[in-house]
Amino acid sequence: MQPRLLLIAALLALLASARAQDAEDASLMGFMHGYVQHASKTAQDALTSVKELQVAQQARDWMTDGLNSLQDYWSTFAVKFSGLWGSVPEATLAPPTEAD
Predict the structure, then answer these.
(1) What is the distance between the alpha carbons of residues 83 and 72, in angstroms, rounded to a whole number?
(2) What is the mean pLDDT of residues 69-95?
(3) What 3 state SS string does 7-68 have?
């Protein structure tokens, strides 16, 4: 009967060892899965911020171009019509007279 107990104890030890190995593999797989998810999210956030920066830069460029065009238009307008403004006599207002 002792050899049977020894065989059963050996089988139980192997089974316990296998379960411990599976639990360790599961925790390692869980750790790796969490790490990969975190790395994926970090990469996605970085790409999103780069895209946002590119969109913001394009918007700034568009606004700068628009303002430069407006300034050029205003300068052209001011130069063309400055001669007219200089030739128009200033209106003088007579002080109001009091009627008695």
Answers:
(1) 18
(2) 71
(3) HHHHHHHHHHHHHHHHHHHHHHHHHHHHHHHHHHHHHHHHHHHHHHHHHHHHHHHHHHHHHH
CA distances from 31 to 41, 76, 82, 85 (A): 15, 67, 75, 78
Q: Which residue has the tokens 């303002």?
A: 67
- Does residue 3 have a pLDDT over 70? yes
The mean per-residue pLDDT over the stretch 26-49 comes to 81
The reported pLDDT for the residue numbered 57 is 86
CA–CA gap between residue 72 and residue 64 (Å, rounded): 12
Which residue type, as a one-letter code, is found at position 20?
A
